[in-house]
From TrEMBL:
InterPro entries according to UniProt: UDG_Type-4/5 (IPR051536), Ura-DNA_glyco_family4 (IPR005273), Uracil-DNA_glycosylase-like (IPR005122), Uracil-DNA_glycosylase-like_sf (IPR036895)
Record keywords: 4Fe-4S, DNA damage, DNA repair, Hydrolase, Iron, Iron-sulfur, Metal-binding
Domain of life: Bacteria
Record family assignment: Belongs to the uracil-DNA glycosylase (UDG) superfamily. Type 4 (UDGa) family.
SMART domains: UDG, UreE_C
The species this protein was found in: Speluncibacter jeojiensis
Taxonomic classification: Bacteria, Bacillati, Actinomycetota, Actinomycetes, Mycobacteriales
GO biological process: DNA repair
Uracil-DNA glycosylase-like domain ranges (all copies): 38-208
Pfam families the UniProt entry points to: UDG
Annotated NCBIfam families: UDG_fam_dom (TIGR03914)
Coiled coil: none
Gene Ontology MF annotations: 4 iron, 4 sulfur cluster binding; deaminated base DNA N-glycosylase activity; metal ion binding
Protein name: Type-4 uracil-DNA glycosylase
């Protein structure tokens, strides 16, 4: 075995997984990161968000989606009619990977390598198995490719309603549907105000489409 598989606990509840992940040494990323940033949210969540990796703020606080992209995500979830407290949030990679700005202390995020994504993948699969969510939203290419492989393209499959790969669905014993969209940081990167507003509206539409895949509970209104 390699990667995180060596560190998975026998008890596959979310709380046990989170505790075990704090000791993960499955890839070199733990050496520079402040801490493991595991998923958060109720174990009964019907909707699971999978981002790419923690950012600088998440690494320092230990909470996923804690930085500027997370703030935009929280606003978009609200606009899409999704309650943050009722969903599970995690990342494909659980440690922050970065380089330092030349001549300063600023930490600049780097994209995780395919080896690092694969090494961390057992944690994500264990989270899916523990939660068995009705819908997963993959935020960005790294998140989607952690489930579907490197051939997956957001530009081709954005907004489509997909099924989990058969091997994952069989292991997790679930019929989860998956929607892939951009990472909220991609919305922030566009400096043109009109394009950024249009990108935000499209992002909210993708989240709303994922929400609409979940049957509304009687008496719960239209929010997930």
């Amino acid at each position: 075995m390699s990667g995180a598989e060596n560190y998975l606990p026998r008890d596959r509840t979310i709380s046990a997984l989170a505790a075990a992940a704090r000791c993960c040494r499955g890839c070199p990323l733990y050496q520079a990161a402040t801490q493991t940033v595991f998923g958060e949210g109720p174990s009964t969540a019907a909707l699971m968000l999978v981002g790419e990796q923690p950012d600088d703020r998440a690494d320092r606080t230990g909470h996923p989606f804690a930085g500027p992209a997370g703030a935009l995500l929280h606003r978009a979830l609200d606009d899409a009619g999704i309650d943050l407290d009722r969903i599970y949030r995690t990342n494909a990679v659980k440690h922050f990977t970065f380089t330092r700005h030349i001549g300063g202390k600023r930490r600049i995020r780097q994209w995780p390598s395919r080896t690092e994504v694969v090494s961390c993948r057992p944690w994500l699969l264990a989270e899916i198995e523990a939660l068995r969510p009705q819908v997963i939203v993959c935020l960005g290419a790294t998140a989607a490719q952690s489930l579907y492989g490197t051939a997956f393209r957001i530009t081709t499959h954005r907004g489509e309603v997909l099924r989990l790969p058969r091997d994952i669905a069989s292991t997790a014993r679930c019929t989860t549907r998956v929607v892939a969209t951009v990472h909220p940081s991609a919305v922030l990167r566009d400096r043109d105000e009109v394009r950024r507003r249009n990108a935000y509206d499209a992002f909210v539409a993708d989240l709303r489409g994922a929400r609409n895949l979940i049957p509304t509970r009687a008496g719960s209104g239209s929010r997930v």
